[in-house]
Amino acid sequence: MLGLMQSQPLLISGLIEFAERHHGDAEIVSRRVEGDLHRYNYKDMGQRARRVAKALDGLKLAFGDRVATLAWNGYRHLELYYGVSGSGRVLHTINPRLHPDQIAWIANHAEDQVLCFDLSFLPLVQAVHARCPTIKHYIALCGADKLPADSGVPNLQSYESWIGAQSADYAWPSFDENTASSMCYTSGTTGNPKAALYSHRSSTLHAYAAALPDVMCISARDAILPVVPMFHVNAWGIPYSAALTGAKLVFPGPALDGKSIYELIEAEKVTYAAGVPTVWQMLLTHMKPAGLKFSTLKRTVIGGSACPPAMIHAFREDYGVEVLHAWGMTEMSPLGTLCTLKNKHDALPEAEKMKIRLKQGRAIYGVDMKIVDAHGDELPWDGKVFGDLHVKGPWIVREYFKGEGGDPLVGGWFPTGDVGTIDPDGYLQITDRSKDVIKSGGEWISSIDIENIAVAHPAVAMAACIGVAHPKWDERPIIAVVKKPGMEVTRDELIRFYDGKTAKWQIPDDVVFVDAIPLGATGKMLKTRLRELLKDYKLPQP
After folding, report:
1. I need a labelling partner for 59 at 20 to 30 A (CA). Which of 115, 325, 402, 439 fits?
2. What is the distance of C-alpha 138 from the center of its chain?
3. d(Cα 522, Cα 185) in Å, to the nearest integer?
4. What local confidence, expressed as pLDDT, does residue 525 receive?
C-alpha cells in the first residue's frame, strides 16, 4: 500500500522559490572583484537567477549540458548556482587553483559548453581556451564597462549584458529529482581527476541535513560567511542550506586575508563562518597582535583538514567562538560528520570535552559509516581500533562521471581512503589518510597527532609529518616545520616539546625546517609533494 501524500520532486529551484516567498528581504552581501560591496536580497537573487535560465535558453543549451564557472564567492556565482541547475543544466564549478593543464583536461572531460568567470581569472581563461573546443561561449562576470577590449577570448560577453537582455518572467521547469544538478572534480584520487555528479535530490537532502541543530545549526537568525570556496564541493552546501532557512549570506570574494575577513565579519554582524584551517590561521594571526575581538561571531565550522587543538583553544578561550569540527569529502557532497557534544558530556572536565571536540564528530542523518580491517571485516566501535573508513548514504557517490575508475564501491559502501577510529558514542576520529599513515615496528603512528603537537608550539606556524624508511623499524616519523615570522625554535627544543604529550616511540626522529609546506588546490597539505622534496633526506645516525 502506498501513502497518500502529494508527490513533488526535490529540486534546487524549490529552494530559491521558498527563499523568495518567505525570506525575500533577507540580505546577500558580496565583496566584489571590483573592490566594492554589493548588497541585495533573496527576492532580487531569484529574479536574476531566472534571467540566467532564460539566457541559457537563448544559447540553445540542451537539458543536461554543462555550464562551468571559474569564480570567487559572490552574488553572481550564487545566481549561476540556481539559474543553471534550476533550468535543468549542470553547474560545473572548476577550481581556479589547479594547473591550467588540469583545468583544460577537466573542461574537456566534462564537455563544458559555457564558461562563466571572474575577471581575476582572465589570464587563466586566455591560457586554456584554445584547448577547450567544447566551450562555445565565454561570460565574464562583470558589467559591460569592465569588459576588456581585446581579451583574445572568443565569443566573450559581459554577464550583466547577457542576463540584462532577458526577462525575469520564467517558470522553473519540473523534472525528475534524480536529474544531475552540479558536478565537482576531485584531485584526491589516483590518476586523472574524477567528477562527483550530484543530483537535485541529493543536494536538497544534504541541505536539509546540514542545517540541523546538531550539524551546522543554520537558521534565519544567522548571518553566514562561507569562506570555503563555492568551487569547493558547492561551499559545503551552504548556498543551499542558507536559502532553505532564509539566513543572511556574506560572501568574501577574492579578499581572503585575515584583515579583510575580520572587517567583513564585524561590519556585517556575521554569526557563523565556515572554512579550512589555513584561512582561520590567517585570521587569528591578524587579530592577536592588534588585540581584536569578535562582537557577533558565535561559531565556525572547520573542515577540509584536521583542525589543530591550538586553533580550537584560541577560538574558544580567547574569542568565545565555538568550533565545530567537520569531516567529509567531494564524493560525499561533502558532509559526513560534525562534532557537537551530547548532554551527558556537559559534566565532564574541560580537558575531557576538548578530547571529544578534537574528533571529527558523529555521523549526520543520511550517512552510515563503518571501519574495516584489511580483509574487509568490520571492526568494533571502541575508540581504539584503527580501520579503513567506509560510508554510504543518499548523497554519497555511486560511481564517478563517465564511469572513470570503474566501480568504486565495496559491497555497496564507498571506501573513503581515510583511516580512523569510532568510539562507543559514534564519534569518528580520523587518524590519517591510508596513504599517509606511518607504520613503525608493526605499530601505527598517526601523522595528524604528531602535527597537532608541533603546531601547539608558539614558534610553529605549520607542520607536516611523513614517514621515512628505517632499516630496523621499517618507517619512522619526521616533522617538517614552518616557523612563524620572527620566531625561533631549534630541532632539540621541538623534540623535547613532545615529552609527556605522546608515547616515546611516536616522537619524531627529526625536525626539518622548511620555508613552506606544499598545499593543494583546496588548502590541504600535499604530502606526496613533500616526500618528493625530501626524497634525498636521510635519518640522523643515533
Report:
1. 402
2. 26
3. 12
4. 82
Residue type, 10: L
Among the listed residues 269, 439, 490, 493, the single catalytic one is 439
Show me where the domains of the chain are located: 8-199, 446-533
Residue located via cell numbers 618528493: 532
Q: Single out the residue of 130, 121, 60, 49 nearest to residue 91, CA to CA.
A: 49
* Residue whose C-alpha is closest to residue 251's, from 16, 37, 15: 37
Query: Is 239 in contact with 84 (CB distance < 8 Å)?
Result: no
Quick: pLDDT tens for 243-290. 999 999 999 999 999 999 999 999 999 999 999 888 898 999 999 999
Active-site entry in 444, 490, 505, 532: 444
Percentages helix, strand, coil for the chain, rounded to the nearest 5? 30, 25, 40
DSSP helix/strand/coil, 41: strand
Write out the E strands in 141-289: 156-158, 180-186, 194-199, 223-226, 248-251, 272-275
Distances (CA, A) of 397 to 69, 78, 206: 22, 24, 13
Domain 446-533 indexed as CATH 3.30.300.30: yes
344 is catalytic: no
- Active-site residue among 20, 79, 160, 331? 331
Give me the DSSP letters along 64-107.
T-EEEEE--SSHHHHHHHHHHHHTT-EEEE--TTS-HHHHHHHH
* Domain pair 8-199 / 446-533, same fold: no
Please tell me the pTM assigned to this model: 0.86
Going by their DSSP bridges, the two strands 335-338 and 223-226 should be labelled as unpaired
Query: Helix 75-86 vs helix 12-23: angle between axes, to the nearest 10 degrees?
Result: 120
Active-site residue (options: 186, 416, 431, 522):
186
Cell of 183: 558536478
Q: Are the C-beta atoms of residues 327 and 312 closer than 8 Å to each other?
A: no
| 186 catalytically annotated | yes
**What is the model's pLDDT at position 283?**
96
CB-CB neighbours of 538 under 10 Å: 9
pLDDT digits (tens, 9 = 90+) for 152-192: 999 999 999 999 999 999 999 999 999 999 999 986 555 67
Task: Give the amino acid at 94.
Answer: I
